[in-house]
């Protein structure tokens, strides 16, 4: 295949995103790339030259998000009620439906136990959990529990396909500490589209420590889940993934938070805990307050930090999470307050009431996470090289093969993995790297200790071009687990490998 043909899909997608194309309303025949003339193709490639092409690939200059007008109160995901039947704790259904994202317009969407996104499932450390998963879609799917330390046959990777109309019950013991996790589909080749259409939900783990810290914990009141996703809607206000899709990661200009368009969050004058999830296909977010005020980060992907870290901003790549606390009792509520992105785009305006809220604390000590001297001195035993763009992405020069085991590792044994993001002629792009079935520790970034707010359990890590990261990895369960780039289109294009734990 020539370079011109390889770049055609990217050209189409960039034109869509920049508003220069009506591809969203085209028919399948019109979207057939083989019917594009050489003149149109050359013009598209010229448009991709320079900043636009390199900007998207590096994710440095992607299309900006429209500011939230704050006209709609933020929706809070419901807490899923527990079942009593046959020892099943939860039943989760993947469904297709219609959602009124825009006033008076129904958008076709996917959801869990509803038409769009999903509920929050709360688990307790030490309990044995049964979850019944049911596929009510008209296509294959899986249920992947992102960040959960779970046996491989319950992980929901691409091997665990559930066909339309089928169901599966998984059972496991909750063995890890309190954390904010999430769940989403992971079928081979179509993960990006299913997540984009709305399949994502939250999974909370609580333990004795989390209950004793005195942190804000009133769900939906001062303990707020925030699922950030950017979308591109067509002229009919539909999520036309085929038209919007970009092989280097689908980027949109419209932000939804918990599925809410133009959201605002009304809070009392109190400390408010925000559980941030970057649930986007590809966009990175740098969260900060428009006033320049500081906030406190208390948790990473997999649990609490040892001590709170005061920050002005925090950056999350796709699938990363962070828990932060904003003290609205100490902020001037006469000013416009909002959570904004790095470029100043308004993500979530805040409306502060005149009422004082609950009294909560931010303890000086929250966890006993440690990176031992022994772990730091372990030799590198696994090397992972991330490389490429579009549909030419690879790990260690290979694309995913479900019949190939890339690594083996012994159950309960800690090894050091070194992940290298190899740059290309144009510099390369950030790759968020995720390992299934475990939480890991960051040893170093380019030989230096990680920043304070990354010194906690992680399951995903953002890696810059030409950056080397060392992580300490231990699997508590046996089986085959995925590791991959969490730009979902890269994952679908084969930027994924398998580790067998024996």
TrEMBL record:
Keywords: Metal-binding, Oxidoreductase, Signal. Residues 1-23 form the signal peptide. Belongs to the multicopper oxidase family. This is Multicopper oxidase family protein. Pfam families: Cu-oxidase, Cu-oxidase_2, Cu-oxidase_3. CDD domains: CuRO_1_CueO_FtsP, CuRO_2_CueO_FtsP, CuRO_3_CueO_FtsP. Gene3D superfamilies: Cupredoxins - blue copper proteins. Residues 95-209, 246-332, 377-502 form the Plastocyanin-like domain. It comes from Sporosarcina soli. PROSITE patterns: MULTICOPPER_OXIDASE2, PROKAR_LIPOPROTEIN.
């Amino acid at each position: 295949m020539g370079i011109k043909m390889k770049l055609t899909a990217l050209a189409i997608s960039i034109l869509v995103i920049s508003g220069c194309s009506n591809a969203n309303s085209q028919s399948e025949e019109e979207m057939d790339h083989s019917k594009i003339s050489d003149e149109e193709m050359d013009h598209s490639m010229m448009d991709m030259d320079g900043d636009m092409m390199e900007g998207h690939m590096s994710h440095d200059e992607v299309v900006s998000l429209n500011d939230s007008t704050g006209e709609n109160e933020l929706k809070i995901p419901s807490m899923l009620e527990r079942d009593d039947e046959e020892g099943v704790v939860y039943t989760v259904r993947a469904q297709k439906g219609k959602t009124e994202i825009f006033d008076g317009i129904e958008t076709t969407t996917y959801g869990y136990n509803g038409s769009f996104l999903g509920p929050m499932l709360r688990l307790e450390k030490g309990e044995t959990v049964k979850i019944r998963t049911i596929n009510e879609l008209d296509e294959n799917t899986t249920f992947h529990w992102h960040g959960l330390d779970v046996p491989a046959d319950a992980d929901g990777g691409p091997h665990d396909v559930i066909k339309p109309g089928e169901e599966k019950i998984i059972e496991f013991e909750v063995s890890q500490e309190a954390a904010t996790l999430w769940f989403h589909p992971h079928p081979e080749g179509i993960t990006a589209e299913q997540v984009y259409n709305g399949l994502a939900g939250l999974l909370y783990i609580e333990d004795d420590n989390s209950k004793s810290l005195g942190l804000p914990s009133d769900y939906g009141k001062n303990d707020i889940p925030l699922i950030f996703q950017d979308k591109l809607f067509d002229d009919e206000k539909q999520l036309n993934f085929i038209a919007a899709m970009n092989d280097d990661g689908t980027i949109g200009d419209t932000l939804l938070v918990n599925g809410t368009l133009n959201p605002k969050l009304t809070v009392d004058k109190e400390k408010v805990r925000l559980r941030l999830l970057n649930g986007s296909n590809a966009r990175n977010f740098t969260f900060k307050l428009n006033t320049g005020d500081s906030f406190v980060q208390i948790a990473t992907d997999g649990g609490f930090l040892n001590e709170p870290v005061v920050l002005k901003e925090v950056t999350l790549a796709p699938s990363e999470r962070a828990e932060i606390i904003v003290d609205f009792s100490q902020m001037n509520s006469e000013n416009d307050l909002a959570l904004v992105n790095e470029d100043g785009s308004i993500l979530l305006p805040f409306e502060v009431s005149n009422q004082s809220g609950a009294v909560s604390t931010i303890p000086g000590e929250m966890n006993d996470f440690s990176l031992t001297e022994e772990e730091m001195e372990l030799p590198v035993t696994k090397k992972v090289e991330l490389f490429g763009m579009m549909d030419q992405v690879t790990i260690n020069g290979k694309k995913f093969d479900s019949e190939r085991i890339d690594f083996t590792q012994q159950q309960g044994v800690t090894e050091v993995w070194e992940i290298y993001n190899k740059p290309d002629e144009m510099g390369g792009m950030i790759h968020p790297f995720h390992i299934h079935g475990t939480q890991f520790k960051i040893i170093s970034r380019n030989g230096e200790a990680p920043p304070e707010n990354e010194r906690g359990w992680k399951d995903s890590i953002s890696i810059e071009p030409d950056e080397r990261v060392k992580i300490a990895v231990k699997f508590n369960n046996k089986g085959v687990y995925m590791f991959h780039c969490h730009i979902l289109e890269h994952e679908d294009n084969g930027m994924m490998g398998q580790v067998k734990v024996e």
